Amino acid sequence: MCALLCASRAGAEAEAESDAPERSTGELAWTIAAYLPNRLFDLCDVVRLRVRVGSGFAVGARVTRYVPLFAGDYQALWLGLPGPRGRARLPLPVGTEGQSGFDAGLAQLGSASNAPEYGAGEVGAGAMLYLVGIDVGVDVWELVDFAAGVATLDLAHDDF
Length: 160
Known about the structure:
Elements: H1 2-46, E1 47-63, E2 68-82, E3 94-104, E4 107-113, E5 122-139, H2 140-149
Antiparallel strand pairs: 1-2, 1-5, 2-3, 3-4
Helix pairs in contact: 1-2
């Protein structure tokens, strides 16, 4: 009986060992295949530079995601570098956004229709003057994520 248990255990260990390299090989292959796109996307995450076309008047600034200042109302189509993705998704160079009301830190009055998603460490400003506008920002946390990504570490959890 003991010999039978030992034999079955040895067979299970051999089967587990044969499965492990396949998983590791697949993960390694994916890491290699996605390395350059992930680094490019991480580099794009560092800077936000959007040109807006739409309607409205607004002005805003931010020192991290947690200290925003915003007043105004606008709806716009934007084109340019989108800024931090926040999760694994393609950084499309075009989109729509809108925001209405007043933000000052934790005090928020108004609504946001597809409002910009600012990064945790992003510093920047934006304005919308009737038909045209701009939104610029730099995220230092995404710069750290890019540097760590060179060693395949994904601190922002936004790699594919």
